[in-house]
């Protein structure tokens, strides 16, 4: 399923996850949605990849716990960003 690219902006990364992200810059990885924070208009979610959990703010799509997203790791002056490339969500990605 093809969806328009959306940006994910990590909010918090444990120290080990920073090293993991640095090693993945420019590559596509899969991340699993483990938690969607309710009652928040920021689109905050918890993701898991490479044995690390980190929080991101989702923009442009809606997800549910258990969804797997395929993202490209990008680095900017403000930190790491994850760009959505495709999804294996059974329900499909819905524009926010």
Concise structural overview:
This protein is mainly β. The protein has one helix and eight strands. The strands form two sheets. The protein has a six-stranded antiparallel barrel with strand order 1-4-3-2-6-7. The protein has a two-stranded antiparallel sheet with strand order 5-8.
Model description:
This protein is mainly β. The protein has a single domain, classed as OB fold (Dihydrolipoamide Acetyltransferase, E2P). Helices cover 10% and strands 52% of the residues. It contains one helix and eight strands, in the order βαβββββββ. The strands form two sheets. It has a six-stranded antiparallel beta barrel. The longest helix is centred in the N-terminal third of the chain and has 10 residues, at 15-24. The radius of gyration is 12 Å and the shape is globular. The mean pLDDT is 76.
């Amino acid at each position: 399923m093809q969806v328009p690219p959306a940006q994910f902006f990590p909010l918090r990364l444990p120290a080990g996850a920073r090293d993991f992200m640095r090693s993945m810059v420019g590559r596509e990885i899969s991340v699993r949605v483990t938690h969607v924070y309710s009652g928040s208009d920021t689109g905050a979610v918890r993701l898991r990849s490479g044995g690390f959990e980190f929080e991101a703010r989702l923009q442009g799509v809606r997800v549910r716990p258990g969804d797997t997203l395929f993202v490209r790791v990008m680095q900017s002056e403000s930190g790491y960003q994850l760009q959505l490339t495709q999804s294996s969500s059974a329900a499909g990605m819905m524009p926010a």
